[in-house]
């Protein structure tokens, strides 16, 4: 699979757009893609995913997961979430390039969908794989958004435990982890179980 | 509870035990174990006899996650090496990939179980309390000799590397019977609990000969 045509961190600009949240302008493609996500609010996290940028030779779309912070912190968020085109072109990353681009919300949604279809085992495995990919790629913001999404959704307790397990190696660096611990503890307590027992080693 | 994780200890030879993790769910059972050098595999547990089973004190939801972690670890490292390394920080915390290189390092069946559980956030044993026992060095030499036949380079490097203490299968199996509030189990407790496992695996003494049937004399 050819990785030509990747967007590097200097190849696009981001600007706030009052109607659509943010605009992503791809400089070398002379095209503008507007991300139709919830409007960016100050001091909130808005993320837009699933934005096709280029097609590889194999015909599959390459996606970029773009995390926008507050209107005042867009540049920082963009820098944190993009990779240089050089590192993407390395032979090692080619095999899992599609994984690196796994859109956060889509990945989380897939886990939730599997869980609701009573495929909790698969959903848990999906979470462990997706989150470990983010961590390996040093995309901690993506892992953070993933966990936040898991916390917001009605899912099995196992899914939330999977999110906590997957982020154990970077537990102090994921902001939403503490919230997920609280949510999970509360859910466990409501089922009459002891959170300290169920979540031992995950705090 | 549909999902559970158990530690299975089996007697595989004279004074030799083997240990692995049995993952059970409504859809079936899977025994994941480090069988030998470069043989981290998934098998049926039914071929192992005699065996003892220790059900880990895990909530069903947590067991689902632990099962997934162990499966992913096994799939990521089918060629995990056999050796005498300490079981902490041997797998990459993010990817679950073996970290210590292809030769001169490795885990035993018992330290693999400990490492796999650690990867899922479960510290079953108090590793720092572990001590060398009298027979440990002789056992290591026996293993190195067996490895020399097919993996001479690996065996030579195991000799060259500093040796860690030995975690025995029965230590792990016995500790797995403790309530989770008692984890991590210390060396002295694990040794004591391991004795029970060995007792279970000991072959039953031969039955005394059946008493002769009382003579029945037909009345004349």
What does this entry look like structurally?
The complex is a heterodimer of chains A (203) and B (220). Chain A contains ten helices and five strands; from the N terminus they run βββββαααααααααα. Chain A is an alpha+beta fold and 203 residues long. Chain A has two domains: 89 residues, no CATH class; 95 residues. In chain A, a hairpin with a 4-residue loop joins strand 2 and strand 3. In chain A, helix 6 packs parallel to helix 8. Chain A is globular and about 40 Å long. Chain A starts with 11 loop residues before the first strand and ends in a 5-residue tail after the last helix. Chain B is α+β, with helices and mostly antiparallel strands and 220 residues long. Chain B has one domain. Chain B is 34% helix and 18% strand. At the A-B interface, helix 6 and helix 8 of A face helix 1 of B.
Task: Set down the secondary structure blueprint.
The complex is a heterodimer of chains A (203) and B (220).
Chain A: E1 12-17, E2 21-26, E3 31-36, E4 46-55, E5 61-68, H1 74-81, H2 85-89, H3 91-94, H4 97-100, H5 104-116, H6 120-136, H7 140-152, H8 157-166, H9 177-190, H10 195-198
Antiparallel strand pairs in A: 1-2, 2-3, 4-5
Helix pairs in contact in A: 5-6, 5-7, 6-7, 6-8, 7-8, 7-9, 8-9
Chain B: E1 4-13, E2 16-25, E3 28-36, E4 39-43, E5 51-55, H1 60-76, H2 109-119, H3 136-150, H4 152-160, H5 169-175, H6 187-201
Antiparallel strand pairs in B: 1-2, 1-5, 2-3, 3-4
Helix pairs in contact in B: 3-4, 5-6
